[in-house]
Design goal:
This protein is an alpha+beta fold. The protein is built from five helices and eight strands, in the order H-H-E-H-E-E-E-H-E-H-E-E-E. It has a single domain, classed as Restriction Endonuclease (3-Layer(aba) Sandwich), CATH 3.40.91. Strands 1, 2, 3, 4, 5, 6, 7 and 8 form an eight-stranded mixed sheet that branches. The longest helix has 18 residues.
């Protein structure tokens, strides 16, 4: 079944049925948008299983790296997609359809040290190069950032992505969920903030809060 044709048919039928009552518009949610939403909620809710004994919400590198991968894998399963780790030039995850000829929907990277993503050959560059070769796929970059450095960090990511996307036909979107924290050796999570980066605009999503902080 051609999903696009079926959608167009259903839209036409609904418009005809409601023409004397109301207007009808199509709403398309890219797979990467839905994936990011589910991933962020899964990551935030599952933290209760991994909280430390003193019940402060935080993380060390070792006990949250695997948690991120688990949340990515579980999100793919919920959406009926497959997930390959360390693929396409060692991208952290490649999310694709389960058709006979799979189509890549999302390329994902996650990094504990937010400053590393700008280095040559690191996460941001890998995502841009990977998505630039795709017809439809978008990108997800997940990281952590200190509260007092968040604004400068996000600005740098936006400038990097938009500077390249604005010159490209049908450019990929970048979904950027960031866990904002306080502390150094022990990171106390404050909230997760998500921005959706387009070539000429940025969309800010509702913050995601961790259960212990609500």
């Amino acid at each position: 079944m051609d999903a696009v044709k079926e959608f167009d048919k259903a839209l036409s039928q609904l418009k005809a049925s409601l023409r004397d009552i109301t207007s009808v518009e199509a709403t398309i949610h890219p797979a990467a948008e839905v994936f990011t939403l589910i991933f962020c909620e899964a990551f935030a809710s599952d933290q209760l299983e991994h909280q430390l004994e003193n019940e402060r919400l935080g993380a060390t590198r070792s006990n949250w790296t695997y948690h991120t991968a688990f949340a990515i894998k579980r999100t793919a399963q919920i959406m009926g997609l497959s997930c390959r780790f360390e693929a396409m030039g060692r991208l952290d995850a490649v999310i694709e359809t389960v058709e006979e000829k799979p189509r890549i929907a999302i390329l994902a990277e996650w990094e504990w040290d937010y400053q590393d993503i700008f280095d040559k050959g690191k996460e941001l560059e890998k995502l841009w190069k990977g998505t630039s070769g795709l017809k439809y796929g978008n990108a997800l970059l997940f990281t952590y950032c200190p509260l007092n450095e968040y604004e400068d960090f996000v600005k740098s990511v936006i400038e990097y992505w938009q500077g390249r996307a604005v010159k490209k036909k049908n450019p990929p979107l970048l979904f950027l969920p960031v866990v904002v924290f306080k502390g150094d050796s022990f990171r106390e999570f404050q909230f997760m903030r998500i921005v959706e980066i387009h070539p000429r605009k940025v969309k800010l999503w509702n913050d995601v809060y961790f259960s212990l902080l609500v």
